[in-house]
């Protein structure tokens, strides 16, 4: 399984949805709070304009997009 990093912001509705979804699929992921990690915030801002940002292997997904997540992980 490819490593999953989930970059989130506090009080972000879609970030919470992403966490719930990944947990429901029993996927292990590393959650990074962008308010506490300036270098991660800069990396995410280069690629995406909002949160959540999901990094699966080397593929960046901007926003909570179930189809892209599933496709990248090869799950349904």
UniProtKB/TrEMBL annotation:
Transmembrane segments: none
Pfam families in the record: Glutaredoxin
Domain Glutaredoxin, residue spans: 4-59
InterPro entries: Glutaredoxin, Thioredoxin-like_sf
Top-rank lineage group of the source organism: Bacteria
Protein name in UniProt: Glutaredoxin, NrdH/YruB family
């Amino acid at each position: 399984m490819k490593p999953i990093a989930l970059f989130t912001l506090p009080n972000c509705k879609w970030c919470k949805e992403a966490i719930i979804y990944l947990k429901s699929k029993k996927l292990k992921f590393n959650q990074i709070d962008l308010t506490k990690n300036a270098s991660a915030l800069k990396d995410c801002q280069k690629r995406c304009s909002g949160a959540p940002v999901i990094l699966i292997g080397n593929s960046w997904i901007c926003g909570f997009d179930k189809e892209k997540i599933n496709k990248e992980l090869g799950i349904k």
